[in-house]
Amino acid sequence: MAMRLDGIHHVTCITGDAPRNVDFYTGVLGLRLVKKTVNQDDPTVYHLFYADEEGNPGSDLTFFEYPGARRGRAGDGMVHRISFRVDSEESLDFWADRLAANDVGSEPGEGALRFDDPEGLGLELAVEDTSDAPLTARHPEIPQEHALQGFAGVRAFSADPDASSAFLREALGFERDGEGYEIRGDNRGSFYAYDTPPEDRGVPGAGTVHHVAWASTMDDHAAWRERVAAAGGQPTPIIDRFWFRSIYFREPSGVLFEIATLGPGFTTDEPLEHLGETLVLPPAFEHLRPQVERILTPLPETRPVRTPS
Ligand code: ZN
User: Fold this and answer.
1) In angstroms, what is the span from residue 211 Cα to ligand 1's centroid?
2) What is the pLDDT of residue 308?
3) pLDDT classification of 184: cutoffs 50, 70, 90
4) φ/ψ (deg, to 5) at 248
5) Domains identified in the chain and CATH numbers
6) How remote is the CA of residue 50 from the centroid of ligand 1, in Å?
């Protein structure tokens, strides 16, 4: 059997304002905060994970918080728009109204609705013809049929997209699909597409994408690293992120890619019904808890407390 990447695993971005970020992604977009932890490469800042109700790869949007970070700007070699699936044109209408009610302007397109998060991160909702399982979270104001269903794909800027073609197709198994690519495994697929970059160079910062991770089975992960290395991709060693394992490398257009494993997953250290409620540190970071808890910005509650009736 040929190895296949199972579409997007997660997308990681930067925020300068974690409380507002939590309000927007859980309160407005209706995602579930499934893990509240720290950046393992800089444990003085949050790493927040939003996803569907079960914290599935394929729905997992994450943010590093750098409090007060300046706004960045997407440029050449950076992802500039993250697209989520929704069910129907009626869902797009629902979201246009809901975003407007929350003072978020949006722009309708062909089967899509585009808008920015409070820090200027480009987002999109797209109606896609797919049989992939919808990955939805529950929110009291969002009918289930209109909930976000996981990632459709991402769009990046590249001044020379042809330079990436052989690497994407031959090393990673991306397939040409219209003007972009589709990457599809046994369970899910995603698109990856390029746009012409703006003249100004990109600036990392709040409201920008840090990297996009593609999903691998546990068994195939080491072989993916070999394949990326053989294609000249200069991958990092395999890094144990506790909830999954990761390698990182830049594809030829400069976009930072990760390949992350589909397991062990977020319920390794928290029960499903309580995901994301408290600060969770991987065992190797637990000794830092007293310092970390003093530094981190307090976050709003993301779910109404259930009172027993
Ligand atoms: Zn990542």
Assistant:
1) 6
2) 45
3) very high
4) -130, 145
5) 8-295 (3.10.180.10)
6) 13
